[in-house]
Amino acid sequence: MCNCNQTKTESFGTAVVNVVKDAIGGKPIKASQVVLSQRLTACSHCERLKRYYSGMPDGVAIIGGDKCLECGCRVKLKASVASQHCPLGKWDDTHENA
């Protein structure tokens, strides 16, 4: 899980370091389509999701501007990175992302 006490800049920096480590170690950088779909579905029902367009009902597909109010990240981007985690533990994808 993330360290939500970090600033957005620190959190982004940590994410970049993790992606570089994964690339060097031969691990996948991008989440698989299955994992990405599962993550976005979980986020689309989350009470901490801030929709870019207000009034969107729960369960509607995530768009690029949608944001997590827990960590401040853009959900679609964060969900697409294999090494990232939901700060609320809602991504049940501890299995391999390949």
Detailed description of the structure:
The chain has 98 residues and is mainly alpha-helical. Helices cover 35% and strands 4% of the residues. It has helices at residues 8-24, 33-44, 75-79, and strands at residues 49-50, 67-68. Strands 1-2 form a two-stranded antiparallel sheet. The relative contact order is 0.24. The mean pLDDT is 86.
Which structural traits does this protein have?
mainly alpha; about 35% helix; two-stranded antiparallel sheet; about 100 residues
Task: Summarize, please.
The chain has 98 residues and is mainly α.
Topology:
Blueprint: H1 8-24, H2 33-44, E1 49-50, E2 67-68, H3 75-79
Antiparallel strand pairs: 1-2
Give a count of the beta strands, DSSP E runs of length 2 or more: 2
Helix share, percent:
25-40%
Major sheet attributes: 2 strands, antiparallel
Tell me the series of helices and strands, N- to C-terminal.
Answer: HHEEH
Give the overall average pLDDT.
86
The Cα radius of gyration reads 13 Å
Low-confidence sequence ranges: none
- The gross shape turns out to be globular
**How far is it from the N-terminal to the C-terminal residue, by CA?**
20 Å
Helical/strand content category? mainly alpha
How many helical stretches?
A: 3
Give the amount of beta strand, in percent: under 5%
Strand order of the largest sheet: 1-2
